[in-house]
Amino acid sequence: ILISCSQLGLTNFKLSCEDGQSGPTHESMQAVFDLKPFRPVVNLSNPTITNISFTLYAVLGVNEKTQILTTFLWLRLFWHHEFLVWDPDECDGITRISLPVKKLWSPDIIIYEFVDDDVSQACPYVYINHTGHIRWDRMLRLVSACNLEIFSFPFDVQNCTFTFGSYMVSPALTFEEMSGNSKRYLEASGEWELVVILGEASILQFGIDEWDIITFWVVIKRRPVLYVVNLLIPSSFLMLIDILSFYLPPHSVDRASFKMTLILGYTVFLLIMNDLLPSTANGTPIIGIYFSVCLALMVISLLETVIITNVLHHNSMKYREVPRWVRVVILKHIANLICYRQPEDVPPPSKAQEDKPERLDNCSGPWIIQPRAQEPAPHPASTTDLSELRAHLTSLQQDSERQDQWCHVGYILDFLLFRIYLLLISCYALVIICMWCIWIHQT
């Protein structure tokens, strides 16, 4: 369809202006408005190139479960309208005007990652230069699909893709300029900070059709301070209390009850903080593994307390002889390995203390009180009675020695298992610190 310039109200492809009027006349622009369905070129073989740039203003939310990133962009489009050209000298020096975007042809820009309805606030006007160059600034609330990697949460870095496509499209600014502008506006944002914006222009072919696309890679990094304060530090304090609980004397304090209460408190802590942890079907974040390992270490600590309590209570009350291999392996070799020194023998009790309950100086407790010696009968003792009394006292002395040995076995095992537990905690802390350093180096 051929339309003459006179029919459009255009003279030499320029809008007309009247004397005393600022800008082109309404009649000449109305002729351009009537051509809205057509691409604004005189020769349809001439391409209309759309230039795109955007500024990442805010990261509104990251949903790890649905793998969706919600951002707010300031999108800027540039293209050339060959019919909106006028001479500023003839139009009272006017070089730029604004017109409703609904009255003009606008390029069709598609964002391939868009997964929701566009509920952005509309920007109704475009700015037009006297040379026919149009600039359209619009605000875009972009809900896009993004493959989120949450393994290193809360020290994760996400790389999301924004793909803009049209028949003829190119970047309006360099990717470094877009990244710099976005960093200036994103400094006041909350949880996320922008690392860099990268991009690449390419051609996408669908059969015989070719589409120009611009792919932007937006790299954002999470600020982990909130999660360190609310998750990692309280968990570390509970682990520290669990370590310090080993200094409670196992013979006089119910250490097992204390550790069970600590495990219960840690479980409640995990339930309360469960909402802060992301969850996806792709994997488990490392912080979840960290909490699981901490809980497992607390259970191991409780198991160690159960073993020591069994040695101090169960074996000593049966008055069984300490096996020879236990004396050789534990009381000799392991005691020397952990530098455990048994206290010197206590001198025999005086006559005033014979009537008092006898306790071991190292294993004093309600379960190892020695039975009081029977008082001698008022009548003269026979030889048989003296022999029985001596045998009874000898049996009590042997029981006291067995109890003393079992008590030292329990203490040696307690010291040994405590040091092994400290070694596990140290290795675990070293792994966490190394991962932290690797994350710092990568970012």
How do you describe this structure in short?
With 443 residues, the chain is α+β, with helices and mostly antiparallel strands.
Question: What labels describe this entry?
Answer:
disordered N terminus; Methane Monooxygenase Hydroxylase, Chain G, domain 1; rod-shaped; four-stranded antiparallel β-sheet; alpha+beta; Acetylcholine Binding Protein, Chain: A; 443 residues
Termini, distance in Å? Answer: 58 Å
Total of DSSP H or I helical runs spanning 4+ residues: 8
Which segments are poorly predicted (pLDDT under 50) over 5 or more consecutive residues? 1-12, 345-362, 364-373
Helix content: 25-40%
**Structural domain tally:** 2
Given the C-alpha coordinates, what overall shape results?
A: rod-shaped
Beta-strand portion reads 15-25%
Strand order of the largest sheet: 3-5-6-2-1-8
Mean pLDDT, to the nearest integer, reads: 76
Let me know the number of strands: 10
Radius of gyration: 42 Å
Can you tell me the CATH superfamily of the largest domain? Neurotransmitter-gated ion-channel ligand-binding domain
Which CATH architecture of the largest domain?
A: Distorted Sandwich
Major sheet attributes: 6 strands, mixed
Q: Tell me, what is the CATH class of the largest domain?
A: Mainly Beta
Query: What is the third-level CATH name, the topology of the largest domain?
Result: Acetylcholine Binding Protein, Chain: A
Class from helix and strand fractions: alpha+beta
Transmembrane segments: 225-248, 260-277, 289-312, 420-441
GO molecular function: extracellular ligand-gated monoatomic ion channel activity; transmembrane signaling receptor activity
Subcellular location: Postsynaptic cell membrane
Main location: membrane
